Amino acid sequence: MAVRELRYFGDPVLKSVADPVTRFDDTTAALVDDLLDTVNMPGRAGLAAPQIGIGLRAFSYHVDGELGYVLNPEIVALSEETHDIDEGCLSVPELRYPVRRAVHAVVRGVDLRGEPVTVEGDGVLAQCLQHEVDHLDGTLYLDRLATDQRRTAFRDMRGQDWFRSAWFRSA
Q1: Which parts are annotated binding residues?
Q2: Which UniProt keywords are given for this protein, alphabetically ordered (predicted)?
């Protein structure tokens, strides 16, 4: 369908808990198409609906050649084993910071027919699943940083062109 414009840090939709998908119609199918088209750009691993301004529990992913989506996803299992892994976000572009994530994650939700879907993975896919579900819960990866690292991130953001442009547009 279309590659959608991204929302950046500071947009209220990114800090709001997304509503469940309750209609499985052409509008929802168009949203899924847009999520898939938008995540299928180079350098992108995952995209949650709030990142394109839609407050619904839906995300797409594109990791290791696997392209997919989940509606109403919930994390149902995380490994006890964790690691600190550099993480970035399309809504906080050009910046990366280490975040503690489970090495393995399992997400359950549904597809466009309302049929159950399970996605599980290790490494980058596990990181992506956790990151995108966080978005749907109104959490940015910056919220998971230690206080001193978060301070550094906010200082670094203020120096970015996208940050100044986003705040100028909203003023």
Answers
A1: 89, 131, 135
A2: Hydrolase, Iron, Metal-binding, Protein biosynthesis
Q: What is the DSSP string of 75-111?
A: EEEE-S-EEEEEEEETTEEEEEEEEEEESEEEEEEE-
The structure's pTM equals 0.94
Catalytic residue among 80, 81, 115, 132: 132
The question of whether 120 is a catalytic residue gets the answer: no
Tokens of 28: 């929802």
Q: What contacts 72, CB < 8 A, 6 or more positions away?
A: 20, 21, 57, 58, 109, 110
Residue with tokens 């600190």: 84
Annotated binding site for Fe cation: 89, 131, 135
Q: Domains (ranges, CATH) in the chain?
A: 12-160 (3.90.45.10)
